[in-house]
Design brief:
The chain is an alpha+beta fold. The protein has helices spanning about 5-10, 65-85; strands at about 20, 25-30, 30-35, 35-50, 50-65. Strands 1, 2, 3, 4 and 5 form a 5-stranded antiparallel beta sheet that branches. InterPro entries: Transcription_activator_HlyU (IPR018772).
Amino acid sequence: MSLWSRLFGSSSASQGPEPTEHDGFLIYPEPVREGTKWRIAARIEKAMGDEIRRHDMVRADLLDSQDEAVEATLRKARQMIDEQGAGIFH
């Protein structure tokens, strides 16, 4: 990574996380760093009519690496969608 990319960020990093689609919902993993651990967190979105509905999921779980947190985030978000469907937006 070049000095300029480290100082000002690269264009690909500034675009945010790539979403994962599950059952018509988009899951954006957004783990939160807390000290040396990572908290499970995601933004879940679904287009409903002309509107995009959004749910911010944050869990108490802390994991050792960002990669582990992303994997666990996707697993928990899929479980929430499977159990609650569009009810997560109420």
